[in-house]
Write a structure and sequence with these properties.
The protein is mainly alpha-helical and 345 residues long. 57% of the residues lie in helices and 5% in strands. The chain has helices at 2-33, 37-40, 48-56, 59-68, 73-84, 101-110, 147-150, 157-172, 175-193, 239-243, 249-265, 271-286, 296-308, 316-344; strands at residues 120-125, 132-136, 141-146. A 3-stranded mixed β-sheet has the order 1-3-2.
């Protein structure tokens, strides 16, 4: 009996510690990736305003664009690897359900994405797998919803808006390129720590600095980076296999958080959680071989934590703005000192 009680106590302690650790991780995710307070304060008079203000106040995205324009080692590697990803050609893809294109355009309009005048599109594609994905195009990106997802029980117009918001977040936040960039920087950091500093031989592909509007990086056939594309089922040659990208764990949570905030902005805060619940374990089967991809149940738990803690918000933006303000103040002091010195002369 004593052993049983002891075992129960140990298991309970492990469960409590695990729960606290997850809450700590969730808090960090919110503080780093949540939308800016300025977005939460806007009225619902124009749905496209949500995306416009979100992008203008997303400091991580802004910082990435600034970094990539340096076009040095890690930045060049990022541009090249992004250029190697397969491109989706809406006008040539036979799997697109043309009869539903009008429906897709209306959905884009109702989510406010159409009004942004970006190089992105939405399509329904013939694919039995219950999934949605974002694929790069020649000058932007395309969001695709599989017929397998469209036909799932419980899917309605609101849940589709949530799925679109999630995929749009992946595309507009430049997750493909940011994943390559984070990997490149981490590898260089590891090499320095290990005392192995090697020159990275990179073929010049002549791509322009990433402009951050969408994904307009040209393609090249110099190298095959197929190993970086999520391979779901080699025996079934479908679009999801070809275009799905292995985002980082945090990027999935970030896209979930933005999609949740968007639905919250529309007054339907439960709809995106419901959208994930509809997928259930079906989505987990797809990513079963990738331990770093969060399970659907964990993603739902994260959003319920967000829902239960409205007092939490983004702190990353505040840190970056303080650094910018300090830098500007220092530059202003230098300018004033130089002017004063010239007057003394």
């Amino acid at each position: 009996m004593k052993r049983l009680v002891f075992t129960i106590c140990i298991l309970f302690s492990i469960f409590v510690c695990y729960g606290k650790d997850m809450e700590k991780q969730y808090r960090k995710l919110i503080e780093k990736y949540d939308i800016d307070q300025a977005v939460k304060a806007i009225d619902r008079d124009n749905v496209s305003t949500f995306w416009d203000i979100m992008l203008k106040n997303n400091e991580l995205r802004i910082k990435f664009i600034e970094d990539i324009e340096k076009n040095k080692g890690a930045e060049k590697e990022t541009l090249e690897k992004t250029a190697q990803l397969p491109r989706f050609y809406p006008n040539e893809e036979e799997a697109i359900v043309d009869s539903l294109q009008g429906f897709c355009d209306t959905l884009l309009m109702d989510t406010g994405i159409k009004q942004l005048n970006l190089n992105c599109s939405l399509h329904i594609v013939e694919d039995p797998e219950p999934n949605a994905f974002t694929a790069l195009t020649e000058d932007g990106f395309a969001m695709c919803i599989n017929t397998g997802l469209l036909n799932m029980e419980g899917v309605n117009y609101k849940t589709l808006m949530g799925y679109v918001a999630h995929e749009f977040s992946h595309g507009i936040l430049l997750h493909h390129a940011r994943k390559f960039y984070a990997d490149a920087k981490q590898r260089r950091k590891n090499e320095l720590i290990g005392g192995v500093v090697t020159g990275l031989s990179v073929l010049a592909v002549g791509v322009a600095a990433y402009n951050g509007v969408a994904a307009g990086i040209p393609t090249t056939s110099a190298t095959d980076f197929a190993g970086l594309i999520l391979n779901i089922n080699e025996g079934f040659d479908n679009l999801t296999v070809k275009y799905s990208f292995r985002y980082s764990r945090e990027q999935e949570y970030e896209a979930d958080l933005i999609a949740y905030r968007f639905m919250e902005y529309l007054g339907s805060s439960d709809e995106y959680i419901n959208a994930l619940s509809i997928l259930g374990t079906e989505l987990d089967k797809i990513y079963n071989d990738y331990s770093d991809h969060p399970k659907t149940s964990d993603r739902i738990s994260f959003l319920k934590y967000v829902q239960a803690h409205p007092e939490l918000g983004n702190k990353e933006n505040d840190k970056r703005r303080k650094k910018i303000a300090l830098k500007m103040a220092q530059q202003n002091q230098i300018r004033l000192r130089r002017e004063s010195e010239s007057w003394d002369k």
